[in-house]
Design a protein that fits this description.
The strands form two sheets. This protein has a six-stranded antiparallel β-sheet with strand order 1-9-2-3-4-5, with no helix packed on it. A three-stranded antiparallel β-sheet has the order 6-7-8, with no helix packed on it. It has about 160 residues and is of the alpha+beta class. The chain is built from two helices and nine strands.
């Protein structure tokens, strides 16, 4: 300890200030690089109440980004989800996800298409589903014989 004190005393006052400044700068750089930036996700929340056989309005997922689509039916309980990629200019929509539970083991779902068709069931009966409406849009379809309500959330 005495050796360190002797060495510090041999430095001039400007030398000590310069060393302290260097230590502060290096410490600040390390702390600045250690911080992590989190991006707040964007989302869209859509509710539906559909008569038997009816479709919701079309929904256009954001293009060229992964989108998590979660849907549920609150009148005949169920929930399903897909992660999708909307490829713009008619390229279609690719997706992979999980169908709603219906008393049997949960099934996977997936595809890549430019046309209309089933994507994922979101109710217990497997009558309400999220469908691809076109190469660029999706919608909720009620294939049951009664009115069904729920919501769909898109996160990107």
């Amino acid at each position: 300890m005495k050796a360190i004190t002797t060495r510090i005393q041999k430095f001039s006052r400007p030398g000590v200030i310069l060393m302290a400044t260097v230590v502060v700068i290096i410490t600040s750089m390390v702390v600045a690089n250690a911080t992590q930036t989190f991006a707040t996700p964007n989302s869209a929340y859509i509710t539906y109440s559909l008569a038997a056989g009816a479709n919701s309005a079309t929904i256009t997922p954001i293009a060229s980004k992964s989108v998590l689509v979660m849907g549920c039916c609150t009148t005949f309980y169920g929930v399903g989800q897909v992660s999708l990629l909307h490829i713009p200019s008619g390229g279609g929509i690719g997706w992979v996800g999980l169908e709603s539970y219906s008393g049997t083991p949960v099934a996977n779902t997936g595809g890549l298409t430019t046309g209309a068709g089933h994507m994922v069931f979101i109710d217990y009966e497997h009558k309400v589903d999220i469908r691809q409406a076109s190469a660029d849009t999706i919608l909720v379809h009620n294939g049951s014989t009664g009115t069904r309500a729920g919501n769909v959330t898109l996160v990107w």
